[in-house]
């Protein structure tokens, strides 16, 4: 079976039962959004070498945080979610992965069954708003004795 063309890397990988890293998932969405048909065009838009993208694909390496931020921002996606997904995937030690899982829950994300997929538990701003309200309530309690 030959691999189809434009924006089918994810679909093809899924059909083949292959795991696709957070970086590659984000990069494929980014390419589609900007209309880049090739990895070279996507890499050029990010100001990186095509070899960098090749390393993401073949070695399973993750993009640098600044690149994850740039792609997610272009997509108007949650940068934190993508950064956490990449970090969890890079944690080879189970105890380190657990630290990132706890951090993701604290920030309002729920891990998918595989452990590398983060799913917002509330609207992107809703979760942050709940944390802000909780922090404000705690601050008010601490300031109450001073008034």
> What Rg is obtained from the alpha carbons, in whole angstroms?
19 Å
Shape: globular
Strand order of the largest sheet: 1-2
Strand residue content: under 5%
> What is the rounded distance between the termini?
73 Å
Mean pLDDT: 75
As residue ranges, the low-confidence spans are 1-8, 112-129
The number of helical segments is 8
Number of strands: 2
Structural class by SSE content: mainly alpha
The SSE order reads HHHHHHHEEH
Task: Specify the biggest β-sheet.
Answer: 2 strands, antiparallel
Helical residue percent band: 55-70%
Descriptive overview:
With 147 residues, this protein is mainly alpha-helical. It contains eight helices and two strands. The chain has a two-stranded antiparallel sheet. The protein is globular, with a radius of gyration of 19 Å.
SSE diagram, text form:
Blueprint: H1 9-15, H2 22-34, H3 39-46, H4 50-59, H5 65-74, H6 79-90, H7 94-106, E1 109-111, E2 118-120, H8 124-143
Antiparallel strand pairs: 1-2
